[in-house]
Amino acid sequence: MKNEKLSLDKNGRFEISLKVNGKPLSMEVKPSESLLEALRKYGYKGTKKGCDTGDCGSCAILMDGSSRVSCVMPAFLAHGSEITTIEGLGTVQNPHAIQAAFVEAGAVQCGFCIPGMIVSAKHLLDRNKTPGEGEIKHHLDGNLCRCTGYVKQIEAVKLAAKKLRKSSK
Q1: Which pTM does this prediction carry?
Q2: Fold of 14-88
Q3: Which of 41, 62, 74, 153 has its CA 20 to 30 A from that of 132?
Q4: Strands, E, within the chain: which ranges?
């Protein structure tokens, strides 16, 4: 499916198939439509629209397990991919360990940058359960926050790593 050649329909749109948060989804997208726009159009509002230039990180998603900014990615490039948005990690009633750690560490203020930060932290913690501070800073580097000095977010990722290590025992 991923290498399948896409063609425009009579309305000048692509019909793409992908998985979003584990569920199959078919989308009709314009050639110029970003993955962010398509996700939001299909109800995934947790992925935020910030800069529209790929610089702030508020639109971060996981695509096939890797963190990507979705505002500059044409939606049709996601054809055949598995996408995870912030909604796919946890719920208010049953938050993911990373989401819970961000709340516990006081890393959430206005909340606009937090979905992208949490997705970026998930990308890191899926690969390394014991990251050092430098590695955490590197993975959060593309996520801009206007409310904090990033200290609480770094503490949250450390706490999340500890929680994830504890839960995997």
Answers
A1: 0.92
A2: Ubiquitin-like (UB roll) (3.10.20)
A3: 62
A4: 14-20, 23-29, 60-63, 66-69, 82-84
Q: What are the domain boundaries of the chain?
A: 14-88, 97-167
Mean pLDDT of the chain, nearest integer: 94
The rounded distance, in Å, linking the Cα atoms of 68 and 76 is 15
**Beta-carbon contacts of residue 76 (< 8 Å; ≥ 6 apart):** 6, 14, 16, 29, 31, 33
The CATH class, in words, for 97-167 is mainly alpha
The letter for the amino acid at 151 is V
pLDDT digits (tens, 9 = 90+) for 99-130: 999 999 999 988 889 999 999 999 999 999 99
Specify the pairing of strand 14-20 against strand 23-29. Answer: antiparallel
Check if 14-88 and 97-167 are the same fold: no
Nearest to 90 by CA among 81, 75, 103, 77: 103
Amino acid at 59: C
| Percent share of the chain, pLDDT over 70 | 98
**Residue whose pair of structure tokens reads 């989401």 in the numeric block:** 99
